[in-house]
């Protein structure tokens, strides 16, 4: 069976704990199903920031990313949560050239993949016109970062939908303009579909109904490095495996399944919103129609101040350590 991700010493030493979790979840999927070599990632808010970090750090392994209300790579610069809030959320107080310089240094040190591997990646960027948590200027900084770092990337953007801080959906969630859990907005717009279509070149089949029994839970504990402090890592992750992908191992010359990683936002993991994100954001309908396995890693809140993770966010400001971005 093909292995999605190569093993290097950097994965065993300085890689961000949560990115390590994603690496091994993907490797396990590769052993269990017939899958394509490269995958893609998307997420909302902290999940959007993490999607960018993951795309930059593992650029040789990915096709692209979907970023809903996320910001540029290493925006918080290991300066903590207060700096992140002041510079990377409602205000875009960051220096793109400085962020690119950091990324170049990390690549030269072997902490992340070469930046030129981002060429030919496709990126979808979304910011709600009424978003009061992460400004459109911050989201536009993602495109500015990538264009300053490398040439040849493809971008599609949507900044005109009158939504609050959410993933916009066709027919599920709160009124589009409301800031409210589970941060899915009924906007009559298929944000996930737009992101996936951008990443895969508009070659996807139309979405269909998901099959509830194709959603599985898996323990995250076996995928953590033994020496790691499992800060904020929830006990379970979830994975949607389309019917065709489950049947492929018994068939000859089967088409390989895609893998997509979907990252929830703060206060949007299973402990906060139940199954809303992994069942209703809109991924599974596209997955069933397009032979796409969707992984939903989960983090949970860690009680304490902002040096911990009190809102259950993927780490984009450094609560898991100084190496949070690689």
Structural commentary:
The structure is a single chain. With 326 residues, this protein is α/β, with parallel strands linked by helices. 30% of the residues lie in helices and 16% in strands. The chain has 11 helices and 11 strands.
Identify the notable features of this structure and list them briefly:
single chain, 326 residues, alpha/beta, eight-stranded mixed β-sheet, three-stranded parallel β-sheet, 30% helix, disordered N terminus
How is the secondary structure organized here?
Layout: H1 9-13, H2 17-32, E1 39-44, H3 46-57, E2 62-68, H4 80-88, H5 96-108, E3 122-126, H6 136-149, E4 154-158, E5 167-169, E6 174-175, E7 184-186, H7 191-199, E8 215-219, E9 236-240, H8 243-247, E10 258-263, H9 270-273, H10 276-280, H11 283-289, E11 292-296
Parallel strand pairs: 1-2, 1-10, 2-3, 3-4, 5-7, 6-7, 10-11
Antiparallel strand pairs: 8-9, 9-11
Helix pairs in contact: 5-6
Largest sheet: 8 strands, mixed
Helix content: 25-40%
The total count of helices amounts to: 11
Helix and strand run:
HHEHEHHEHEEEEHEEHEHHHE
Q: Low-confidence parts, pLDDT < 50 over ≥5 residues?
A: 1-16
What does the oligomeric state look like here? single chain
Strand order of the largest sheet: 4-3-2-1-10-11-9-8
Give the N-to-C terminal Cα separation: 27 Å
Q: Mean of the pLDDT scores?
A: 88
Rg, alpha carbons: 18 Å
Structural class of the helix and strand makeup?
alpha/beta
What fraction of the residues are assigned to beta strands by DSSP? 15-25%
Number of strands: 11
**How would the global form be characterised?**
globular
């Amino acid at each position: 069976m093909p292995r999605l991700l190569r093993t290097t010493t950097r994965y065993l030493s300085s890689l961000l704990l949560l990115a390590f979790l994603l690496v091994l979840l993907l490797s396990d999927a590769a052993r269990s199903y017939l899958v394509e070599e490269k995958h893609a990632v998307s997420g909302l808010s902290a999940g959007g920031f993490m999607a960018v970090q993951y795309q930059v750090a593992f650029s040789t392994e990915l096709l692209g990313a979907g970023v809903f209300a996320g910001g540029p790579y290493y925006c918080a610069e290991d300066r903590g949560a207060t700096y992140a809030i002041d510079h990377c959320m409602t205000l875009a107080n960051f220096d793109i050239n400085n962020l690119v310089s950091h990324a170049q240094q990390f690549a030269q040190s072997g902490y992340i993949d070469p930046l030129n591997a981002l060429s030919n990646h496709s990126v979808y960027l979304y910011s709600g016109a009424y978003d009061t948590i992460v400004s459109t200027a911050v989201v536009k900084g993602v495109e500015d970062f990538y264009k300053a770092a490398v040439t040849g990337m493809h971008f599609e953007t949507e900044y005109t939908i009158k939504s609050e801080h959410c993933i916009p959906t066709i027919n599920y969630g709160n009124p589009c303009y409301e800031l409210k859990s589970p941060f899915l907005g009924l906007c009559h717009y298929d944000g996930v579909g737009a992101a996936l279509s951008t990443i895969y070149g508009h070659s996807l089949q139309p979405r269909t109904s998901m099959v509830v029994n194709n959603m599985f839970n898996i323990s995250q504990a076996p995928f953590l490095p033994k020496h790691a402090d499992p800060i904020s890592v929830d006990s379970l992750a979830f994975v949607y495996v389309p019917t065709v992908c489950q049947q492929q191992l018994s068939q000859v010359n089967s088409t390989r399944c895609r893998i997509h990683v979907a990252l929830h936002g703060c206060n949007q993991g299973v402990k906060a919103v139940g199954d809303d994100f992994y069942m209703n954001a809109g991924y599974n309908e596209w997955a069933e129609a397009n032979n796409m396995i969707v992984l939903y890693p989960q983090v949970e809140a860690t009680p304490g101040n902002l040096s911990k993770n009190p809102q259950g966010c993927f780490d984009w400001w450094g609560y898991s350590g100084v190496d949070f971005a690689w």
